[in-house]
């Protein structure tokens, strides 16, 4: 009988203390299964090991996601955000000018546009 796959939705409802407790139980279970495997148990144990390892990964994923959302809340109104919380994008997009920087004009350009507006003609050639 394979070990039931843990639903991530159920894990998200749990508190951090409960998650660490379930993580400990899964790790203990994994250790027991590995000892049995070394002792020469049936091949069915290897599939159980796989399921338990995946469950451990799911619990760890939910824990890290919760921690990251908590930290994101702390840095919400700050000017600088830690690099691991910033948007990944691509290197070129991260270095591109912002909309504000793109729209800025020099004083000379502003005067030129004010004094020499684009002429509109009624008849096109």
What layout of secondary structure does this protein have?
Elements: H1 8-13, H2 16-39, H3 44-74, H4 91-95, H5 99-103, H6 107-115
Helix pairs in contact: 2-3
**So what's the oligomer here?**
single chain
> Helical proportion?
55-70%
What form results from the Cα inertia axes? elongated
H/E topology pattern: HHHHHH
- Give the averaged pLDDT, no decimals: 91
Structural class: mainly alpha
Q: What is the count of DSSP helices, taking H or I runs of 4+ residues?
A: 6
User: Biggest sheet, in brief?
Assistant: none
Instruction: Give the total of beta strands.
Output: 0
Beta strand %: under 5%
Head-to-tail CA distance between termini: 83 Å
Low-confidence stretches: none
Note down, in words, how this protein is organized.
One of its GO terms (biological process) is maturation of LSU-rRNA from tricistronic rRNA transcript (SSU-rRNA, 5.8S rRNA, LSU-rRNA). GO terms for molecular function: mRNA binding; structural constituent of ribosome. Belongs to the universal ribosomal protein uL29 family. It holds the Pfam family Ribosomal_L29. Keywords: Ribonucleoprotein, Ribosomal protein. 64% of the residues lie in helices and 0% in strands. It is an all-alpha fold. Helix 2 packs antiparallel against helix 3 (44-74). It is elongated and about 90 Å long. The N and C termini lie far apart (83 Å). The model has no long low-confidence stretch (mean pLDDT 91).
